[in-house]
Automatic annotation (TrEMBL):
ATP binds at residue 62. The keyword Nucleotide-binding applies. Signal peptide: none annotated. SUPFAM superfamilies: Protein kinase-like (PK-like). Residues 34-290 form the Protein kinase domain. This is Protein kinase domain-containing protein. CDD domains: STKc_PknB_like. Coiled coil: none annotated. The keyword Cytoplasm does not apply. It comes from the Bacteria. GO terms for molecular function: ATP binding; protein serine/threonine kinase activity. Keywords: ATP-binding, Kinase, Nucleotide-binding, Transferase.
Amino acid sequence: MSVPAQLGTVPYPAPPPAWLEDDSVSDPVEIGGYRILERIGVGGMGAVYAALTATGERVAVKVVHQEFATNPTYRARFVREVDLLARVGDSFSVHPIEADIGAYQPWLAMPYIAGPTLGEHIVGEGPMAGRELVEFTAGIAQALVAIHRAGVVHRDLKPDNVILSSSGPRILDFGIAQAMDEPQPEGEEVLGSPGWISPEQFHEHPPRAAADVFAWGGLVAYASTGRRPFGTGSVETVAMRALQGRADLRGMPHGLLPLVEAALAPDPARRPCSEKLLREVGRLAAAGHC
């Protein structure tokens, strides 16, 4: 069994441009009429800024890096991201407030969501337990139900793409999401982050809802143990562990363990759907077994 040597990394398969590491280069002062306050995130495709509207409301603005703005592939992905965010709505993600996909550097304005990412929380506070873990586990399952009912596959659930807001977890970054009825381009590289990519994608199977369920299992394992379920190491090493179903689930609550094991099954046909995840987590919580 072989594993592709080259994997795309989210949000797009390109490293952040060199100018982002150059302190002598200033961030923009304004994008689309929004006054920029600070840079709050960066990926291969674009940067995200905290900004203010004309009335003083805080928003987040994502803008495509200048060197990719003329690339048709990146532009198409950005257009798709805006469309899919609009489909999902704002209950469990962030809806588009305004976007200019025809701008020289396309941009997207979204509500500003305060709170740490799951990764930041685990590093700073340690693993979750008790009610906090139950609410997180149920919240992510509920978010997946909403995303999948909208006909969307996120494809990139990982700790850095989950914000722990005051109203519950929010899923961010639909940069490589796709519609469920969208055909998979032949020869497309495997997109996603090693350790969170579902095994079937290494066999050139198009990602479907079961791919997000796999990532849900990984997120719950990480939240409850503080460890990445497939460890660290080279891309090939981490991917092989996922392909072989060798997740490190030591220390997980006994009530959640069977559900997480099922979600992390290498065979997508054996994984529960997101609706079943939500029902089972609710049942465990009601019985006090989480």
